[in-house]
Amino acid sequence: MAQEITDEMVDSLEILAKLDLSGEERKRVKRDLGQMLDYIGRMNRLDTEGVEPLYHVTSQVNVFREDEEEGSAGREEILAGAPEAMEGCFRVPRTVE
Q1: Phi, psi at residue 90, to the nearest 5°?
Q2: Which secondary-structure segment (H or E) carries 78?
Q3: N or C: which end of the chain has fewer CB within 10 A?
């Protein structure tokens, strides 16, 4: 194991995540976190020289349509659908006194 997961670390994690772990759950968390750190340590030891970074899991760049610039509706057209407008803006009921 690269780094020992201590009870203090689990205490801190429990506070930060607002968890209330039982004794068995604490043991499982310590074991699982240790396994994760071991795996990360093994990954860090791999020789990745010359390996291109993977930015996406598929080779497809954009499976949707191309972005196309379109015009937008004018202020008057947008405010025409508003229940109330005042001085070129939407008028809404007061929410704070």
Answers
A1: -70, 140
A2: helix 75-79
A3: C
